[in-house]
Amino acid sequence: MSRRGVPLRKSLLVRLLIASALIAVCSVAATAWLAVETTTRALREEQVQVLADDMDVLARLSGYAATHGDWKGVERTVRALSAKTGRRIALTTVDRTLVADSAPRGTSLPQRASATVDPLRTDTYTERGAQRSGIDPRVVGPYRLTVRERAELDALARARRSCFARNGIETVINRTPSGRPTVDDVDTTIAAGYVPEECADGKLNTPTPTEETALTDLARRARACLKRQGLSGGAPMYIGVDVTDSSLGTRYVLTKFLKEGDSVGAREAQACADSARRAQLDPYVAPVAELFLGGGDSIAPRFDVSPANKAKVVGAAALVLAVTVAVTTLVATRLVRPLRALTAAAQQPPEQHVRVPVTTRDETGILAEAFNELAERRERLEVQRRAMVSDIAHELRSPLTNIRGWLEVTRDGVVDPDPALLGSLHEEALVLQRVIDDLQDLADADAGTLRLHREPVRCDELLVQVAAAHRVAFDAAGVTLRTTVEGAPWVDADPVRMRQAVGNLVSNALRHTPADGTVTLTARREGEDVVLEVTDTGAGISADDLPHVFDRFWRAEKSRSRRTGGSGLGLPIVRHLLAAHGGTVRAASEQGAGSVFTLRLRGTPAPKGD
Questions:
Q1: Sign (positive or negative) of CA dihedral 322, 325, 326, 328
Q2: Which of 106, 390, 408, 445 has the fewest CB atoms below 10 angstroms from its CB?
Q3: In 10 A of CB 575, how many CB atoms?
Q4: Looking at the predicted structure, is the pLDDT value of residue 246 above 60?
Q5: Quick check: 218 and 279 in contact, CB under 8 A?
Q6: What gap in Å lies between CA 365 and CA 6, rounded to an integer?
Q7: CA-wise closest residue to 300 among 107, 65, 55, 26
Q8: Which of 96-100, 235-239, 605-609 has the lowest mean pLDDT?
Q9: DSSP class per residue in 22-74
Q10: How far apart are CA 278 and CA 22, in angstroms?
């Protein structure tokens, strides 16, 4: 079973929330549709046009025309403005050819245009009610600075701002549409005309090569107009850049020395400058367009709760109710079906170990997988219980049968009770006692009543004691027993139980190691842990059998008898004893290369005085 969390899209909670959200959305959508359908047409003709919104729409469209050479692609802007204001917006050429319209195709236009979109003659960008002779400052045309020029001017602007800061004037850097930066004051210090002498270097106000080229072309166009007006003679004409002007007035000032008080000549010169600028910028802007705001010519009925509207309300409510019932029924059915399957499986007899199909990956599916795992564990435990009863009966039957048989033939006088017979019966009794003691140890470990009498234990002494207890058996079998200790590691453990655990491993190694083989006991410290190892040069354990070495009554070779293969309880007891001490035991082996059993426990400092 996968232990990963439930995917968000599969979560039962999320699905319920989605179902509820769908119901809510349907309800809101139906309500909104009713409100829009019954009131929009009537309110569209009756509502008063908001002047600020109209001017914002005109400013957006004027800005589009100022930055584009034609009206291609304006449809998206028109629809976005229409969605924002909730009004119809249409653009046409001066001859009423449709350019863009937020209303469906075929909807008639109002009789009159609301405004003319001409960025070269605008009054709506920054100043309300300004003269229509203004030019939208977003029209930059040939005055747009290059990347390099912008970088150079940005450096000059930062230097100018630092200079003002050194003189106690707080400023900010703004950028005009052409890319030219301006240094503006936070208060009115600069506006009042005060500029520190060290800051008035004039570098930031000097036209760039791009602006020089555009200004030269502007001067050429203006001279032609002035010549037609008879103003070309006399004093020379100067063209400069007003970098602080962000209003509708021209940012490129054309001046000429005229006679003092010649207001007519001044107006004609300014008219020539404006005409020359419009002619210069005209190729860079979209053509003049007419703007239509509002609905068509048809008049919508007023909102009232008429029978038709009542029927719409009732129909929409019925539809929402039907959708709610259908979605709820579908979700509830999908939720109840697996729960019913779980209930039916749980009601079956325990010995059948019924599983349920897993059809989903949500919380219900995980519950079904957990139920199936529980059934599998119960089945495995039942198999293990039956096998253990059979193994216990077999382990007890063999010595009891031998004892009974010899006692019966002795009673009948067939054999004499000589010392050899009594020794054999005593050995069978000891085997029987060991099996019962092992079973008692396992029962105590399973019940959590295995008692430990902990004390500091020196590992080298522990290994010496175990080796001494098994030395005779090893000598008889012709197997060498060695002990190796690195340093003097100590553990806090029950010395009797630890000798039992290590002794079980040594006995197991002796049974599986042929004559002339070697069994090595090792103790060492690894960080905060103490590691005890029992290594043999026996036949080893196959990879398939290795995971089962700590199972009760398990033998690698099923043909081995109890005398040659052990009872099958020694290694399980080792595992429980180590677990009671808070340690672990691990087996590693390779077929034909021997085995290594590793005990790992938490180390402890040596007692004072040792």
A1: positive
A2: 106
A3: 20
A4: no
A5: no
A6: 10
A7: 107
A8: 235-239
A9: HHHHHHHHHHHHHHHHHHHHHHHHHSPPPHHHHHHHHHHHHHHHHH-SS-TTH
A10: 56
Contact 235, 269 (CB under 8 A): no
3-state secondary structure 378-421: HHHHHHHHHHHHHHHHHHHHHHHHHHHHHHHHHHCCCCCCCHHH
DSSP symbols for 354-365: -------SSHHH
Total length of the chain: 610
Distance CA 533, CA 3 (A): 34
Angle at 429 between CA 423 and CA 434, to 5 degrees: 125
Are 207 and 241 in contact, with CB atoms under 8 Å apart? yes
Q: Alpha helices, DSSP H only, in 68-208?
A: 74-85, 147-166
Q: Which two tokens stand for residue 17?
A: 């929330």
Each as own residue / partner, the long-range contacts of residues 130-135 (CB below 8 Å, 24 or more positions apart, any chain) are 130/247, 130/248, 131/248, 133/274, 134/247, 134/248, 134/249, 135/248, 135/250, 135/274, 135/277, 135/278, 135/281
The token duo for 411 is 């009673």
* Residue the block writes with tokens 């293969």: 565
Q: Would you state the structure tokens that stand for residue 150, as one six-digit string?
A: 């912008």
Contacts of 472 (CB under 8 A, 6+ apart): none
Task: Let me know: does 519 contact 509? Beta carbons within 8 Å.
Answer: yes
Asked if residue 171 lies in contact with residue 183, where contact means CB atoms within 8 angstroms, the answer is yes
Residues 54 and 461: their CA atoms lie apart, in Å, by 99
Burial 6-41 (b: 16+ CB within 10 A, else e): beeeebbeebeeebeeebeebbeebeeebeeebeeb
Amino acid identity of 442?
A: L
CA-angle at 206, arms to 202 and 211, nearest 5°: 165
Q: Which amino acid is at 472?
A: V
User: Are the beta carbons of 573 and 438 closer than 8 angstroms?
Assistant: yes
* Per-residue pLDDT reduced to its tens digit, 131-185: 455 788 888 888 889 989 989 888 888 888 888 888 888 888 888 888 888 888 7
Instruction: Determine the 3-state secondary structure of 458 from DSSP.
Output: strand
Q: Point out the least confidently predicted range of 222-226, 293-297, 446-450, 534-538.
A: 293-297
